[in-house]
Hints:
The complex is a heterodimer.
Chain A: E1 4-9, E2 21-27, E3 30-37, H1 57-62, H2 69-84, H3 90-119, H4 122-143, E4 152-153, E5 156-157, H5 163-189, H6 191-197, H7 205-210, H8 215-219, H9 250-274, E6 289-298, E7 301-310, E8 317-321, H10 323-335, H11 343-349, H12 354-358
Antiparallel strand pairs in A: 1-2, 2-3, 4-5, 6-7, 7-8
Chain B: H1 2-15, E1 37-40, H2 50-54, E2 60-63, E3 68-72, H3 81-85, E4 91-94, E5 106-110, H4 118-125
The structure holds iron/sulfur cluster (SF4) (2 copies).
One iron/sulfur cluster binds near residues 57 and 77 of chain B.
Amino acid sequence: MSNQIVVPFGPQHPVLPEPIHLDLVLEDERVVEAVPTIGYVHRGLEKLVEKRDFKDYVLIAERICGICSFTHSVTYCNAIEHIMGIEVPPRAQFIRTIWMEYSRMHSHLLWLGLTADAMGFENLFMNAWRLREEILDDMEATTGGRVIQGSSKVGGIRLDIPDEKLGEMVDHLKSIRPLLEESNRIFTHDQTVRHRMRGLGVLSKEEAWDLGAVGPTARGSGCDMDVRSTGYSAYGELGFKPITFPHGDCLDRCLVRSEEVLAAVDLVERAVAKMPDGPIEEKVKGNPDGEYFAFSEQPRGECMHYVKANGKKNIVRHRVRTPTFTNIPPLVKMLAGIELADVPVVVLTIDPCIGCAER
Amino acid sequence: MPLFTMVKRALANVTGKPATLMYPATPAKQYDVSRGHIVIAIEDCIFCGNCQRHCVSQAIVVDREARTWEIDRLRCIICGVCAEVCPKDCIFIEPDYHPSSVGPVVELVQGPPAPPKVEKKAKTEE
Ligand code: SF4
Ligand code: SF4
């Protein structure tokens, strides 16, 4: 095959918000193989756990990712709380769930905007980001941070949301719901979107399962896989059902996310309706001793935090496996056989977040 | 149908007000709990160094001898740990952002002279 050429894609590319490098082996315009390379933004955050108090480290764990930030801190807290046998008060669990669903909304809206942008649909891009801003406003009003909330702590949460504010949040969500539905309709029915994404980058259910796809990438291929079904935090009490789509192409991965935005609105409404009263944190005494794997469902998929402690105030080992990392093998599979011009859209549909994949 | 939804949006965008703010000419949105920047009430500080020990990004340097408290604004990630651990509650989080800058911004706050030794003597006598 002498007429094969290699085209480098990334680490700097207009559609990539973060640096991942792909060597695309092309035959004419068709991709035969893609060889991924990561390692451009390693920050050594895991190592820092040995130098910081385990309670202060929550804030560093949160900064692993700039979008799924809150979920990272909650997962780390879950791990420590399990090791230390801390019972987190129900109100704290519910409020954590609300904030996690808000993160999901803003992450998915960000992604929907980026995808519209990758397709050249600028109007839709602006529209999605404007809606995201409404979500971020509520986030900042309740936690103090737009994307880095810093409101989770070992044993509970730092800030309570007063009941009136919870009511206001639900009213606000009700008022933007028609706009979210409208933008969903565009993703479902618009000719441009369908033409660009239907049948592109197909990942079958078996392949998704074998290659370890997680999150919307797996659910877009029909795998009924969502850590929220295990009922961590308050999900167990909210009647959560995963959203799946059967085709495994780019459009289905996109629809999973746009549907999840509305599902997150529902979850927040249910959580507010069931919100228990009571304290928001449990006193933490002593240091953790033991190890634990904590799982959570981030906007991008299943994330795992492994924590090993030896009874000192510094943790011995913290290891994070992020959804983007597991979604790279499925991505390589999706890329084989598509046209070069479709590569940006397909890469975007796994919602790559390289910052957290490398930490 | 969806085509016309977008046309409606596009028209609203052309005729409406911009959705963005001209920051920093117009101040950014802020709420009571917004984390903008850290300030210290130096009169109350006892220079115990707790904030320095807990600061996750090593932005604070406390000098007990010289009675100074120093913060590197660009290192600080405004996490609020220092405010939480301070025994005298003399660190506060203000909701407005620190102005942007191109170089390191290190602010040194000089504390008032140490209170007269009487107190100390009283303690040692005890
Ligand atoms: S923790 Fe508070 S009292 Fe102690 S040095 Fe820092 S600011 Fe001063
Ligand atoms: S807010 Fe956080 S990073 Fe900033 S000085 Fe305080 S502890 Fe350090």
